[in-house]
Amino acid sequence: MSSQNVAPEQSEVLLRVIESAPQVCRRHQFFVWSQGDFQRWLPHKISVCGTYDRDQRDLVFDIFNSVPVPDAVVQGLKDIRSELMQTALSTWHRGRRQACRMPLNRIGASSSLRQTLTDLGYDEVLMHGIHRPGRPEEIESFFLFTQPHEAFSENVLRSLDMLLPCLHVAYQRVCATERQMVVGRTMSSALPGQPYQRLIPITEREREILLWVRDGLSNQQISEKLGISALTVKNHVQKILRKLGAANRAQAVARAMTMNALSIMPSHHMGDSTY
Questions:
Q1: Rounded to an integer, what distance in angstroms lies between the CA atom of residue 261 and that of residue 122?
Q2: Contact 127/104 with Cβ under 8 angstroms?
């Protein structure tokens, strides 16, 4: 949908969608946001949102629906191994990773998920995603939309292309916030006097590197301490940032300290520490 074809009132709606996106931090807020002005650009009844989980090393999906759907449909749409989701992903890749539509009759006739959706009036899905720069096979997020008794127009297809960056950032923020809240609730439920068990999957090497980061050492200095390359240290730091949902090194240290993830220091580091 080119700017020349967007009416002034449509531009105002799009602006409201974009301006409200930074306030979306929780799952319920994401649902409310997607049901407001967002619907005027991309009407749908079911949305499936996926993000790459680095612990599971795969896309993990969640479903948001404004109409009742059977549990079997919910589970099928959340299952990356289901024929529908696998076909959707392969169709998107074959379409050069652009916003595209997929008729449900492309799914095998034996698929119970396809049959149930068809019986409910759903005939096609709309999808788009974001992959890592230079690594098209590594998907960061993937979104699928569908609505009953109505096909998606070319305008809606272009709308998804326009909204994708905003959609991606908002959903990534929701996932990061929800993960942190789960960690916080688990920490607060621990019995007094019991040591906190790390809930985030930081390896011992990553924790060791994070201790040196806390002390203000550069990647080169850390590599010399540990006898590994500076590039390896950089890769470890990037993994730590992703695992902690941190934007930078200082924020990663602060979050790790809040979670008590640095409480047990290796003896060789303790000997060099000025603390």
A1: 47
A2: no
CATH topology of domain 204-272: Arc Repressor Mutant, subunit A (1.10.10)
Greatest CA separation for the chain: 69
Residue 214 or 8, more confident: 214
One-letter amino acid for residue 241 of the chain:
L
CA-nearest of 202, 198, 222, 211 to 253 is: 211
Residue holding tokens 């201790």?
Answer: 211
Q: Whole-model pTM above 0.85? A: no
Q: Using alpha carbons, list the distances in angstroms from residue 3 to 14, 17, 162, 232.
A: 12, 16, 11, 45
Q: Where are the domains of the chain?
A: 3-183, 204-272
Cα–Cα distance list, 206 to 140, 177, 222, 233, 242 (Å): 22, 22, 12, 9, 12
User: Tell me: the pLDDT tens digits for 50-85?
Assistant: 998 877 788 999 999 999 999 999 999 999 999 999
With bands split at pLDDT 50, 70 and 90, how would you rate the model's confidence at 202?
A: confident
Please report the pLDDT score of residue 108 as a whole number. Answer: 84
Instruction: Return the bridge partners of 146, or none.
Output: 46
**Does the structure show a pLDDT above 90 at 11?**
no
Q: What angle do CA 39, 64, 8 make, to 5 degrees?
A: 15
- Exposure string (b/e) for 8-32, b if CB count within 10 Å is 16 or more? eeeeebbeebeebbeebeebebbee
Quick one: fold of 3-183? Beta-Lactamase (3.30.450)
Tell which residue, 221, 256, 213, has the closest CA to residue 237: 213
Torsion of CA 19, 21, 22, 26, to 10 degrees: 150
Q: What's the rounded Cα separation, in Å, for the pair 158 and 82?
A: 27
Structure token digits, residue 235: 């890769």
Taking only the tens place, the pLDDT of each residue in 21-51 is: 999 999 999 999 999 999 999 999 999 999 9
